[in-house]
Amino acid sequence: MKDQFKVIVLGGGFAGLQAVKTFLKKTPGVDLTLIDSNAYATMLPALPDVLSGRVPRAALTREFTEIFPKGVRLVQDRITALDLGARLLAGENETYQYNYLVIANGSMPAFFGFAPKSGTLHTLHSFAAATALRAELLRLSREADHATLLIVGGGYTGLEVATFAHHGYADLRPGLSILVVEKADDILSFVPEKTRRTVLAYLRSIDVELKTGVSLEELSSTEATLSDGTRVHNPVVCWTAGMQGANDTIAGSFDQSRDKRLQTNEYLQLPKHPEVFVAGDAAALSDGESVLRRALIFAHDSGRRAALNCALVMQGHTPQPFRPVDPGWVIPLGNISVGKLFGSVPVGGRWGVRLHYLLASVRHFGASQAWEFLKTALVLGRSPDKPGRSEPPDQRH
Ligand SMILES: Cc1cc2nc3c(=O)[nH]c(=O)nc-3n(C[C@H](O)[C@H](O)[C@H](O)COP(=O)(O)OP(=O)(O)OC[C@H]3O[C@@H](n4cnc5c(N)ncnc54)[C@H](O)[C@@H]3O)c2cc1C
Hints:
Distance between the termini: 40 Å
CATH topology of the largest domain: FAD/NAD(P)-binding domain
Number of strands: 24
CATH architecture of the largest domain: 3-Layer(bba) Sandwich
Radius of gyration: 21 Å
Shape: globular
Structural class: alpha/beta
Bound molecules: flavin-adenine dinucleotide
Number of domains: 2
CATH superfamily of the largest domain: FAD/NAD(P)-binding domain
Largest sheet: 6 strands, mixed
């Protein structure tokens, strides 16, 4: 009977890929479709390396046709609407009927109503966005005597952008200043004071300026105005101040949490639509007490659990609750890192950065890319400011 079911996985990130792999294993006969607006999957945690040049850009993405040569229909389309009643997804090219749906379309930047007068707010939420940011930095570094990479948001992504851009200085650094503005009074409030001081000293040592208690007030194509009155000439602005679920565009009528992640039951189903499962950043995943941070491990595990549960429901069985296991986290900041493993083991220095690349190599979508991350982990940072590799601009959008 399961052969008659049409199953759609929306989004080919860590959650969607894991869901497809699980369906292929558990329900080999099912009519399975993966829809993504891109033709390739992206190693999101390594996007700061588009700026550093440490990892070849070819290693940061992989075509879906290479990941899944058979067993699943691969569709490149951007979904713009979802009709839960009619069980229909509408894309820019086509509409798609489903019996079961796994929503795994990740997150997108949240701008909290900020709209520039003119000029561009760059982000780091996709490969195309990261490549556009790098291209703009290169252009301004070449054409202007002086330009500033202005990073709005001193969270982990903002600090990764600042430090990784610094490490790509062979291409980017001449005539380029790096400034991070953070609205809160301090950065990394979740790390111990000693660790925070280490990070602040490191930022100073690589000439990254940090302004706390300051926000971006206005942006034009030639100037940014900050809330402390500072005017920044020739800014390249990278917005890293927040993320929200990517469902805003497709599902205005859903019950959603404040940051637009979808609320599910413990089986990862939409409460009123048990035929719809949600995984990864798109879901307000919970450990039973609080909503989990957006992280690769939870995306991976929830993608698997959503597909397993969908298979169980299709076969008339009872689904199993999603029980997340948190092995910890590590944030690479250029040549140093902060992190905590298994709830209490601190991670720092270059070992943490190596660990970050090792994890990327384990979680990667292909052997050759995994090897690039492994190599990066092994040779990392022989000198404190090892310049990044120069590469030709990538044409992919
Ligand atoms: C810069 C950066 C650094 C990070 N660093 C780390 C880290 O060090 N460690 C860690 O654990 N986590 C990190 N994360 C978070 C981690 O990458 C995410 O939690 C994880 O990728 C979420 O996986 P996902 O499958 O839910 O979504 P994604 O990986 O975002 O995949 C979503 C997919 O859906 C597609 N899609 C979206 N909307 C549509 C649509 N309307 N139609 C069709 N397709 C659509 C997208 O193209 C994409 O392929 C980082 C994230 C970023 C952005």
